[in-house]
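Lab notes, practical 5.
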Amino acid sequence: MIVDVLRLAALALLVAGGQAMAQQVLAVSEESMPLQYTSHGTIVGPAADLVRETLRRADLPFEVRLYPWPRAYAMAQIEPNVLIFSIARNDDREQQFKWVGEVYPAEFRFIKLKSRTDIVIKSLDDARKYSIGVINKDITHEFLAKRDFSLGQLDITANNDINFKKLVAGRLDLVLRSKRALDMLCLRDKAMCDKLETSYVVKEMKMSLWMAFSKNTPDDIVARARTSYNAVRADGSWNTIMLPLSH
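Output from the prediction step:
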């Protein structure tokens, strides 16, 4: 009898442990200073802090990791219980994820060398004449591909740094990136920044960055995170967490 009771208790612990592991959330994104980045071996930044606060209040066990964007994006499309953050929300992605809450608004622009006075862009179609650096599987890549910009015209790389280096080296005509990415480049490398300027703000790309769960994440986990996120917004914590981005 005692043995049976002990066996049942052990089984209950195993089930409970399995359920806890099943509810473990893996929060993923890319290195993108200042939103989320690695400093001295620790993932920091307002977006990462917002995700942590949201999941902590939802009482969901979690881990935050940063990967190259194509890998993070693929994980969020395939695996359960994956929360991808700082992802641009648009019509094409609307049904691919379970959206939780906004991280930060984004504005995108074509960036060129100041010395390239021959490059003049007054509309999106004007950019079709030039080579453009974008990040693989990123919103910039998807946006231009959907609008039939040719593969030969798009230079698809893994991150912002590669694109900006190619631009300064004269191997690209333009880079399509957010204003925040350009601002952070200027903080890190003033010499490079002084060589660059905005050529055209892409009005068609005005959108927000969000956090979102993979489609096969259980609805109860998503609901808990949404409720928690709404509380973070309601009590003013979102403003406090994201304050560094307003400077």
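Observations recorded by the TA: The longest helix spans residues 2-22. Confidence is low (pLDDT under 50) at residues 1-21.
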